[in-house]
Write a structure and sequence with these properties.
This protein is of the alpha/beta class. Helix content is 39%, strand content 28%. It is built from 16 helices and 15 strands. Helix 7 (200-211) packs antiparallel against helix 8 and helix 9 (234-242) packs across helix 11 (271-280). The N and C termini lie far apart (59 Å). Pathway: Amino-acid biosynthesis; L-serine biosynthesis; L-serine from 3-phospho-D-glycerate: step 3/3.
Length: 395
């Protein structure tokens, strides 16, 4: 005997449908093992898997449910199955962001998933703007193999795809650590200072080589800072006035704070610039380098330990320990080679508009110009973001 009954109701969404269907099913010796419902553009699909505890006439159940749904213009399908429980295989979340997201791209994604022998257990829309964001919950595939295959699909379709484990850690309080230059903000601060000092070309060349992994970051930073010797400290305030936040930066930080998450900025740049920027976003946790100043002029040296590639990873761990957040709930975001240790140390490392060298080595990569799309990779949907905004507006 087939032990499970699978019932699907579809049609124009109307209030009381789920209540009516389950009330009818309560007259039979059935136990619900799975229940899912979705409404798309006013059309409802309600699905139930029920375990039988005695022999049941499927046709009788179908007629009973039809007597309720047909007057509502809906249909019902009843089938039997020997399998009723959700899979115990590794669950993965495949988050897709596109602007636009085309049917061809979705066909390529789902084709790769099927080609890896995986099953799509659930599809959820997270956002319609500023990008279309869709989350696929799948089972039966290797994370690394699937991530590699979908990376090719992402490049071919100019979309972003992230593959991560679906775990309970996703639901707890998180620590999100952000790089600053070319991540939180659109500029490289040292390039602005170099322009004021008249050494823009020399500094830009060193910056480019360092961010692509061709130079050791600490050495390159010392070289660039040495070129700033003699620059008046007043130039720092002037540089701050030129800085622009990446679109979505304020929304990201505001939403994370309202959800009770911890946010930190970890930068290979300068605390004299980063700390005031952090304050504008309500962020108090900062780790960055300190410029040496004598008689109101930059000396071309740094004070204290340099926040370099390994220093950023250490900062992530230090902040996690301070806040009592397990490393399994840490997220790091950056764009340069000096961010890689931090990205790899975090449970989820996101390369944001990063250089190819970094993008190919990070867990996930985003090419969207909006920093708040990071929220979608965390499973936070657009409605939740807007709800948080509306609650703040009423205070």
């Amino acid at each position: 005997m087939d032990d499970y009954l699978v019932l699907t109701v579809s049609g124009l969404d109307q209030s009381g449908t789920t209540a009516g269907v389950t009330r009818i099913l309560s007259n039979y010796p059935l136990v619900i093992t799975q229940l899912q419902q979705i409404v798309l553009q006013g059309e409802l699909v309600l699905g139930l898997t029920l375990k039988k505890h005695a022999h049941i006439d499927n046709e009788e159940i179908q007629k009973d449910v039809e007597s309720f749904v047909q007057p509502r213009g809906m249909t019902v399908r009843v089938a039997t199955s020997k399998q009723g429980q959700a899979t115990t295989e590794l669950q993965l979340l495949v988050t897709v962001l596109g602007n636009p997201l085309t049917p061809g791209a979705v066909a390529a994604i789902t084709g790769v998933i099927a080609g890896h022998g995986a099953n799509i257990d659930r599809i959820r829309q997270i956002a319609e703007y500023p990008v279309t964001a869709i989350e696929f919950e799948i089972s039966g595939a290797s994370q690394e193999n699937l991530r590699s295959a979908l990376a090719d699909v992402a490049r071919a379709n100019s979309i972003d795809i992230a593959v991560q484990r679906a775990s309970l850690d996703r639901r707890g309080v998180h620590l999100v650590v952000l790089d600053v230059d070319s991540t939180l903000i659109r500029q490289e601060v040292i390039d602005i200072l170099a322009r004021f000092a008249g050494v823009e070309e020399q500094v830009s060349d060193i910056t480019h080589r360092a961010m692509n992994g061709e130079l050791d970051f600490a050495e390159s930073l010392n070289q660039r800072v040495s070129l700033l010797a003699g620059l008046p400290v007043s130039a720092l305030a002037e540089a701050r006035s030129e800085i622009q936040f990446t679109p979505g930066a304020a929304t990201l930080c505001r939403t994370l704070h309202r959800l009770g998450f911890h946010v930190a900025l970890v930068s290979g740049g300068f605390s004299e610039i980063v700390t005031p920027l952090a304050a504008e976003l309500g962020v108090v946790n900062v780790r960055a380098n300190h410029l040496d100043v004598v008689d109101g002029l930059l000396t071309g040296k740094l004070n204290g330990e340099i926040v370099d590639r390994s220093g950023k990873a250490q900062a992530l761990q230090d902040f996690a320990e301070r806040f009592g957040v397990p490393m399994s709930r840490t997220i790091a975001v950056g764009d340069g080679a000096n961010d890689l240790d931090m990205l790899n140390a975090a449970a989820l490392g996101i390369a944001f508009n990063a250089k190819p060298f970094v993008r190919d080595r990070a867990d996930s990569a985003l090419t969207s110009p909006y920093l708040d799309t990071i929220l979608y990779l965390m499973g936070i949907n657009r409605a939740e973001i807007e709800q948080a905004d509306s609650q703040d507006a009423t205070r």
